[in-house]
Specification:
The complex is a heterodimer of chains A (809) and B (337). Chain A contains 20 helices and 41 strands. Chain A is an alpha+beta fold. Chain A starts with a strand and ends with a strand. Chain B has two domains: 87 residues, no CATH class; 228 residues, 2-Layer Sandwich (BirA Bifunctional Protein, domain 2), CATH 3.30.930.10. In chain B, the strands form two sheets. In chain B, strands 1-4-5-9-8-7-6 form a seven-stranded mixed beta sheet. Classes of the chains: A alpha+beta (809), B alpha+beta (337).
């Protein structure tokens, strides 16, 4: 939304020392968010009115001409490619040093003195788009330069001054006025400025209509809950023509393209009061009455932008009894548009229900200046003011025109006057500072609230333009007072609150612990991934996409499913990183989304339905050039120490899946908490380098439930332990796990068995392997003698020999 | 006695000169200096000396003992191969130290924990909740009914089953009030999503840290002071903040909080676009409807809420100029933190 400072001056006398920048700042601090301040004269700096004195062909270019241009103080030679140049023509000359948009596109370029095909050129004769005036002066072709001959202009004058384009325009962020229907017009903003600066605001005036009642206009509103008010009026004898310059300048300031003296008036009123309007060509309205009614699903209608729209049962339509002529509140129809032949018009100023306008415009994918105002809940009172103002202007611009019908007004406004009782205490308590009663009354008065004060309570009548949804509760009044009083006047003071029981969430503290543990102790780097699963990796892992939650409105096709596992994205990231690193260890701790599992979060307070499960997973991928045994055992070791770290007793149990050459379940008691394994090599693209890709994943949300925080101290050993190393030869397929099972059976005095070397090859018979391991013996009762230990070792060797034909090396 | 001590010393010197084996050295050390060694045996006879002789011989005996200890430790060094003194090392100590490689946390995690610590110290607890959310908790309960224009400002990823990816961490406001009631003091950091195209300053996935404090008589000044204190702790310097109006349906009044530019201290620079201030976060006093939706008596309690942009803070802190790096998983980036 643009605010024109010149337009404001119609109702306000701004302080002479108030700059547009200051005004913008104050609006930002009290009312809305300002994006930027545009200075019309600055953007036309260095552009002056010139007169072409002489024209000659360029000696070396067919399409260029060499012009001698009178700029008042000098005559400059300018080479120009315009197709409509003529001697004596008044043109806009961008002088050397000024900024233009080359062919109306791209960034601004600063003009320099140049030679064009050998001929010196000092500046540029501008096309309208090159100096940003294409709305005011639409060009028929790209080569057409701006012809100012029809204006009575002084040669050498600054163009901005000559054309009265010397406004400051404040660009207001629309998001910041979503809740303020009254600020979608210049007058509403003027009201704010008046309140902020304590200025006197001129009342908005319209003259009473003089009616020559030749026509009976009938309006029937069939859907009263979608159309709160409808005002209509017939004006005859208009003559369609361009609007006068002052009107064009106003429209230019707020970024609108002038069209003709009827459409421009409806736009002007919309920008002044915030009330969208429409003008129909009366000749195209066949029936006897205007009807406001809902469409039937599937009906079609061509809007004035030429697009055929498919309607639904929510679409509110304006009909002439025979056909639809407008999509109510959104856009008029092509069939009744104002044309050069139009002589009589029907003016519409209505008020439509906000959410229906929004629903329809969303469903039809059609947003307009009109719909974006109606969806904010406009004040039905303004509709009347607007139609009177529009009629007044149309009559002023069309000498022969007259009002040919009564002003028809079908008013079903559901809004009633709002009176709020606001305790003075509430304002001061929320604000944290006591504001004098007089000051509160004054501020509310400036904002046009009617206030009475009794027994420390303000009785506040809300003006109609704030009463459609904006102001409805006492807290809204707190904001009104506070923002005008100034947030800078608030005393910052820390809250005084009672100490509360802290909520310590084990999942949260464990998340933090594990992130640090993985990064600092395990050399894993944390990555963040999108919630959308990498489809190609999901497929490689054999994950069924239909089991994933689908995104209805996707940004791109490969972001259509929510993660059911963190692995696809992690593997994709590992693969991308492999270009730069050959050892990769990455992890992620995030939620995954499972529609087949009921989650723990309810959908609404009734707690009858639940959202899909969204457990947290913790998952890692390790890419290494080390051999597969090391790759596997390192990940196995990581999980074993993770279990120890969290006080869990992981049981690892071999299983299979279709993407791994080796895979184990990670179980706690009988529950599978996760898996780890080695990826099939063919799945991972590592170029010519042979790598091993190990992966692991755990359901973090489940795992947290098993964390054991009850560590208790074990008394230190009283007697020394005896350490012995053994090396044995066994068949190469004998598993360590099986050996250990037998070894530990031998004696409770054996407190630790740990392999330290497994070897096959030179010196070891074929089909055999050598395993060397440490044994640690200790008795809780005495210092073990070496004979005791020797006997146990003999027993161990015997049983290993018996079960596995093991031989000592 | 005196001569016995001298003899002992001489025989030690003689023995040590011939030593070539550490075991023998240890035995020898035991023989002379052990608990039942020769020196101790000698010292036992000190008690038989006269009162005049005792201090003199005692002193000598101690000197001999110290001397022997030094001799043995030298001998031990020689035997164990530690023959050289530090001035003639045979390696280059100026080579870089041998470091253990460590992994790295995402910078957003680092900043999140810094901010969490500050809030924890101020008595806030940390809460977590769903990212896949219902329309009710993300919008309706926050006073954003269907067809409300404010929905435009939060373009939403819609999911099958008519749920959505939460557009803000505010989805937890009503959930937490329902669960814990008032008074309440908590923060909810987490991942949020907006349906929008990505570029260097926009990503559809980013992080916020929501805060909510509900108690009796909470006012706007409390909000300002809390944020000022928090931000000063996080940035480790005094910071200045200001409020200006901002509209968010779940707060009334609603504000945008700006922070005085940390680069130019408010003088105006390219970072703050010459304004001296940087937009930091939306915040406000909790709307009575939101309190009521959470089952809290809005006549008795009031509160403030804020939505700190964690991703924005991370980018500010590390001067990251492309938001997409944070979710890129690119180790060249992540290993810098």
């Amino acid at each position: 939304m643009y605010l024109s400072v010149n337009w404001l001056k119609s109702w306000l006398k701004l302080p002479s020392d108030l700059s547009a920048q200051d005004l913008a700042h104050q609006l930002t601090m009290s009312t809305v968010e300002v994006e930027e301040v545009l200075d019309q004269s600055a953007s036309l700096a260095g552009v002056v009115v010139g007169k072409i004195k002489e024209l000659a062909e360029h000696p070396d270019a067919d399409r260029l001409q060499v012009c001698q241009v009178d700029l008042g103080s000098s005559v400059e030679q300018i080479v120009c490619g315009g197709t409509n140049l003529s001697k004596g023509m008044l043109v806009a000359v961008a002088t050397v040093g000024s900024q233009v948009k080359w062919h109306g596109e791209g960034e601004l370029v600063t003009l320099e003195k140049v030679k064009i095909r050998g001929i010196e050129s000092n500046g540029m004769i501008a096309a309208s788009s090159e100096i940003g005036l294409n709305n005011l002066f639409p060009a028929k072709s790209e080569k057409e330069i701006l012809d100012l001959s029809s204006f009575n202009l002084k040669v050498g004058q600054n163009l901005s001054q000559a054309l009265q384009l010397n406004d400051f325009v404040i660009d207001i962020d629309n998001k910041s006025i979503n809740h303020r229907p009254d600020l979608w017009g210049q007058y509403g903003l003027a009201r704010e400025v008046a309140a902020i600066y304590r200025l006197k605001l001129k009342e908005y005036q319209v003259s009473e209509l003089k009616i020559k009642e030749e026509e009976k206009l009938k309006v029937t509103v069939k859907d009263k809950d979608k159309c709160f008010r409808y005002l209509g009026l017939v004006i005859k004898n208009v003559k369609i023509a361009p609007s006068p310059w002052w009107l064009k300048v106003r429209l230019e300031a707020v970024g609108l393209r002038p069209i003709n003296n009827i459409v421009d008036v409806t736009n002007y009123v919309m920008y002044e009061l915030g009330q969208p309007m429409h003008a129909f060509d009366a000749k195209m309205i066949e029936g006897q009455e205007i009807q406001v009614l809902s469409a039937k699903k599937g009906e079609k209608f061509v809007t004035l932008d030429g697009v055929k729209r498919r309607l639904n049962e929510n679409s509110l339509m304006i009909s002439d009894g025979k056909k639809y002529v407008a999509l109510a509140g959104i856009m008029g129809g092509q069939n009744s548009e104002i044309s050069l032949e139009t002589e009589n018009i029907i003016l519409e100023s209505a008020n439509f229900q906000a959410s229906n306008i929004r629903r329809t415009s969303t469903a039809l994918g059609l947003r307009s200046e009109s719909s974006s105002r109606f969806e904010k809940s406009l004040d039905p009172e303004i509709a009347e003011l607007a139609i009177k103002k529009a009629a007044e202007l149309i009559l002023a611009l069309n000498e022969e025109a007259y009002v040919a019908s009564r002003l028809v007004d079908v008013n079903n406004s559901p809004f009633s006057e709002i009176t709020l009782s606001v305790p003075e205490d509430l304002i001061n308590k929320r604000f944290g500072v006591v504001i004098p009663t007089k000051e509160i009354k004054d501020i509310l008065g400036r904002l046009q609230f009617k206030v009475t004060y009794k027994n420390k309570i303000f009785e506040i009548k809300v003006p109609s333009f704030r009463a459609t949804k904006d102001i409805s509760i006492p807290e809204d009044i707190v904001e009104e007072v506070a923002r005008i009083y100034g947030y800078d006047n608030i005393q910052a003071s820390l809250p005084e609150a009672k100490i509360q029981t802290p909520q310590i969430d084990l999942a949260h503290t464990t998340t933090k612990d594990l992130r640090y543990w993985l990064s600092l102790a395990q050399e894993y780097t944390e990555v963040y991934n999108y919630p959308f699963t990498n489809v190609s990796w999901a497929e490689k892992l054999g994950l069924n996409l239909t089991e994933h939650i689908k995104v209805k409105n996707t940004i791109s096709a490969d972001q259509a499913y929510l993660n059911l596992s963190l692995l696809p994205n992690l593997l994709a990231k590992a693969e991308e990183n492999f270009r730069f690193f050959d050892e990769i260890r990455i992890f992620e701790l995030e939620r995954v989304f499972d529609k087949n599992k009921k989650g723990v979060y309810h959908v609404d307070p009734a707690k009858k339905k639940y959202l899909p499960a969204q457990d947290k997973q913790i998952s890692g991928v390790k890419v290494t050039v080390k051999d597969e045994q090391v790759a596997f055992l390192e990940v196995k070791g990581l999980l074993e120490s993770l279990g120890e770290y969290l006080g869990l007793n992981f049981i690892l149990e071999k299983t299979t899946n279709n993407f791994s050459k080796l895979v184990y379940n990670i179980k706690e008691q009988d529950v599978i908490l996760g898996q780890f394994g080695l990826l099939k090599e063919s799945l991972f693209d590592s170029g010519p380098t042979k790598v091993q890709v190990a992966w692991w994943q755990l359901n973090f949300s489940s795992l947290v439930k098993y964390i054991n925080q009850n560590t208790s101290y074990q008394s230190l050993a009283k007697f020394p332990s005896v350490n012995r190393d053994l090396a044995i030869l066994v068949g190469k397929n004998v598993l360590w796990e099986d050996l250990v099972k037998e070894i530990v059976k031998v004696s409770p005095l054996l407190i630790n068995v740990e392999p330290f070397d497994v070897f096959m090859g030179k010196g070891v018979p074929e089909n055999k392997k050598s395993i060397a391991f440490h044994l640690e013996f200790r008795s809780p009762e005495k210092t073990l003698e070496s004979e005791d230990v020797e006997q146990l070792i003999k027993k161990i060797l015997d049983i290993l020999n018996k079960k596995f034909q093991a031989q000592i090396r | 006695m005196e001569s016995k001590l001298k003899n002992l010393k001489d025989s030690v010197l003689k023995d040590l000169a011939e030593i070539k084996d550490s075991q023998i050295l240890a035995d020898l050390k035991n023989k002379y200096l052990g608990r039942k060694g020769e020196l101790n045996e000698l010292l036992k006879s000190l008690k038989d000396l006269s009162v005049e002789e005792k201090p003199k011989i005692g002193k000598l005996a101690n000197e001999v003992k110290e001397e022997l200890v030094v001799l043995f430790s030298k001998a031990e060094k020689i035997i164990s191969g530690d023959k050289k003194e530090s001035e003639d090392l045979d390696f280059d100590p100026t080579l870089p130290g041998i470091k253990k490689e460590i992994g790295h946390l995402n910078p957003s995690t680092i900043v999140q924990y810094e901010i969490e610590d500050a809030f924890l110290a101020m008595g806030f607890s940390i809460y977590d909740g769903p990212q896949l959310e219902s329309d009710y908790y993300n919008f309706t309960a926050l006073n954003i009914p269907d067809d409300h224009p404010a929905r435009d400002t939060q373009d939403t990823f819609w999911l099958e089953g008519d749920n959505l990816l939460r557009t803000h961490t505010s989805n937890l406001q009503v959930r937490m009030l329902e669960k814990y009631g008032a008074p309440f003091r908590g923060i909810f950091p987490g991942r949020v999503f907006r349906y929008e195209a990505t570029d260097a300053s926009h990503d559809h996935t980013f992080y916020q840290l929501e805060g909510l404090m509900v108690d009796e008589d909470i006012n706007i000044g409390n909000l300002i002071a809390t944020m000022k204190t928090l931000l000063s702790a996080v940035f480790r310097r005094e910071v200045d903040v200001r409020l200006r109006p901002g509209f968010f349906p779940f707060v009334e009044p609603g504000f945008e909080m700006d922070i005085k530019c940390l680069v130019c201290s408010g003088d105006g620079c390219s970072v703050c676009k010459q304004s001296g201030w940087l937009e930091l976060m939306p915040c406000g006093m909790v709307h009575p409807k939101v309190l009521e939706a959470g089952g809290v008596d809005s006549k008795k309690y009031s509160g403030f809420a804020f939505g700190l942009g964690l991703t924005r803070m991370t980018m500010m802190k590390y001067r990251i100029n492309d938001i997409r790096l944070l979710e890129s998983g690119d180790l060249r980036f992540l290993k810098q933190f």
